[in-house]
Amino acid sequence: MKASRRLWLLAPLLLVFSLGAKADRQARREYLQGYASLTRELTLYWDFETALKLRGTYLTPAYRMQLAEERRRLLHAPEAEHQTFVATMKSDGEAYHEVVFSADSGMPEGEHFGNGDDGWHVRLFADETQETLVTVFEEKNPNMLQRSLYPHFNMWSDLWVARFRRTVTNPDKVVFELGGGYGHGELVWEGLRSR
């Protein structure tokens, strides 16, 4: 078979691969735009050292669905599995405010989070109502998917999830506060109802 004829036969296949790759790039770009719009950064200093470098993503109901779609795309998940994940994301979103954050500190107790005095005390306010902390936990061994979904996580940081009981169901402003022996700061999300 002549080379030109082989190329002609491969052209439709190459076009399909090219369109699929372009669609994947576009889907990834859209996910990262949604992720970036809900990710905030905080740096706290103690004397001349960085006491805490934290990047947090607030999981709104709309972002949870975007995250579920990105998970399906990355895993090429079957429809039944995807629908189960979507149902979990919806029920968690109705019950909790969640902030997924990466944290890095070289200070003693600088990477401990909770509601005690032995690390960073975390609080969340939804439209000025303080929500109750349910749990804050470290993902001890983040997997490939978590690294893709939360690109703020890197080799120097730990990945954490803070979960608060949701009593304010549709806040316009959410503030995630941290305070400890090395100082205090906050991550703020405003205009959430307009998203």
Summarize the structure.
The chain has 195 residues and is α+β, with helices and mostly antiparallel strands.
Helix content: 25-40%
Poorly predicted regions are: 13-17
β content, as a range?
35-45%
Biggest sheet descriptor: 5 strands, antiparallel
Q: How many strands?
A: 10
H/E series: HEEHHEEEEEHEEE
Task: Give the arrangement of secondary structure elements.
Layout: H1 3-37, E1 39-46, E2 49-58, H2 61-75, H3 79-95, E3 96-104, E4 113-114, E5 120-126, E6 129-131, E7 133-139, H4 144-149, E8 158-165, E9 173-180, E10 183-190
Parallel strand pairs: 4-5
Antiparallel strand pairs: 1-2, 2-3, 3-8, 5-6, 5-9, 7-8, 9-10
Keywords:
195 residues, alpha+beta, five-stranded antiparallel β-sheet, 4 helices, 10 strands, 37% helix, globular
Question: How would you characterize this protein structure?
Answer:
By secondary structure, this protein is of the alpha+beta class. The chain contains four helices and ten strands. Strand 9 and strand 10 (183-190) form a beta hairpin. The chain is globular and about 50 Å long. The termini are far apart. Mean pLDDT is 89; it is low at 13-17.
